[in-house]
Design a protein that fits this description.
The protein is about 45% helix and about 20% strand. With about 240 residues, it is of the alpha+beta class. It folds into two domains: about 70 residues; about 150 residues, 2-Layer Sandwich (Heat Shock Protein 90). Strand 4 and strand 5 form a beta hairpin. Helix 5 runs antiparallel to helix 7. The longest helix has about 30 residues. The chain is globular and about 70 Å long. It starts with 17 loop residues before the first helix and ends with a strand.
Length: about 240
């Protein structure tokens, strides 16, 4: 059963654009059958596991994994739609403080063990604070997810130009294969096809930067690291 048009569990309001209508339909109408598929497969596994051979168990596990991937993709679409729908007031934000606070969320995580983060003298910019936090979360998460065997090092810097700020967020991780670099900002495109992630983080990052009038790009060398660049117009600050 779908919920009323003016609300949903993810906070998506009544759709306006064609994309929002699509996201609304996906986030509502696909959730229930998807939950049903997962629930019945789990019941099948619990009740008949002793009667199923190894191949049947493999099929069940594979289907459950793909149902979970689809759930993540649905939520990623909703998150992407929210970027354009966010009408919060812009405010002046100290990027050194914001980046340091977001890094605290990752610094103590096992995946970031031994990692270091250096932020240079970053400027104050004007933007939607929740979206800037989300942008930094995407960048940190990508670096943590793609760290190499070396201790992770992240360097966040900014250069001031006449009309804009040019930020660079560099790590010494595994890097992105050249074949994926042109499409990595597209929805559901991943550098590692085996990754359990939805592949929407950089798409959301691009939407946030472009919403504020900037541009985003990256350079990467395998086994050496990745640098994400994004600009922020001074008129937004």
């Amino acid at each position: 059963m779908t919920q009323p048009e003016n609300q949903d569990r993810g906070g998506l309001s009544s759709p306006q654009s064609e994309f929002d209508k699509f996201v609304y339909a996906v986030s509502h109408d696909l959730q229930e059958p998807l939950r049903g598929v997962s629930a019945f497969l789990k019941l099948l596994d619990q009740k008949y596991s002793d009667q199923l051979d190894e191949q049947a168990q493999t099929y069940i596990n594979f289907t459950l994994e793909n149902a979970e991937k689809m759930r993540q993709m649905i939520y990623a679409l909703v998150d992407l739609s929210r970027v354009s729908r966010n009408n919060e007031e812009k405010e002046v934000i100290n990027m050194n403080e914001l980046a340091a606070n977001v890094w605290l969320m990752y610094n103590n995580a096992p995946a970031a063990s031994g990692a270091s983060f250096i932020a240079e003298d970053l400027p104050q910019i004007k933007g939607i604070s929740t979206q800037l936090v989300q942008l930094m979360q995407v960048l940190f998460q990508n670096s943590v997810d793609n760290k190499s065997e070396k201790p992770l090092e992240i360097h966040f810097d900014c250069k001031e130009e006449k009309d804009l700020y040019k930020f660079s967020f560099a790590d010494n991780g595994k890097g992105i294969p050249e074949a994926y670099q042109d499409s990595i900002f597209e929805i559901f495109r991943k550098a590692d096809p085996k990754s359990g992630k939805a592949g929407a983080g950089l798409t959301i990052a691009r939407a946030i930067v472009e919403k504020h009038g900037g541009k985003i790009s990256l350079t990467s060398i395998e086994d050496q690291g990745t640098t994400v660049y994004f600009t922020w117009p001074k008129e937004s600050s």
